[in-house]
Fold this sequence. Notes:
By secondary structure, the protein is of the alpha/beta class. It has helices spanning about 35-45, 45-50, 105-110, 130-140, 160-170, 190-200, and strands spanning about 5-10, 25-30, 60-65, 80-85, 115-125, 145-150, 175-180.
Amino acid sequence: MRYRTQFLLSATDPAQFPTSGAPEIAFLGRSNVGKSSLLNALVGEKAAKVSSTPGRTRAINFFALTNAELPISVNQHPKLVFSDLPGYGYAKISKSISSTWPAFIEPYLAERPQLKLCICLIDAKIPAQESDRQLIHWLRHAGRRFAVVGTKADRLSGNERTRNLAALKRDLEVDDLFLISSKTGFGLKTLWQQVEDAAQ
Ligand code: GDP
């Protein structure tokens, strides 16, 4: 399906979360991992711009995806909702997932019933960071479905891809990890497939 994307809202409190009930896909990653570039590649420039607007970088930004084949005048329920979470990783992670994250993020990840998949973005060029390991550990512990995705694949040679993929899998203790590039579009089809499978 082709989607039309619309910015819904920025939430800094659970009371503001959208109520549509549509399956939600969360995007997570350390600052600078390429999250805005990925959202840009998946749903268009508007989304990435909204998410990097000061004041919205500490919020969860929600986007509604509707069927682009239907005319814009038809009032549609979203097929999917993307939630863009604040980047983490500036400070050392302690007891909670991240001391740099606002307090409402953990309950969102732990309790949101319509959250179907967490897409964890990892920079494929550099070794796994402790904050990434802790996030994945936390999601696993919380019983959340997640996909680990290595970003910026275009910056790696063929050999580096193989080597870094193996190292990241080992260090993050995950069986599945695939690479994407927002710049070339590499891997984005696989990512969409995972999104649509999870949203079923
Ligand atoms: P965010 O902080 O996670 O939203 O990261 P951005 O999307 O702003 O990207 C951080 C930096 O990485 C920018 O300089 C981007 O141009 C670069 N970047 C993001 N995705 C890619 C990619 O797929 N390939 C390459 N070569 N650079 C990328």
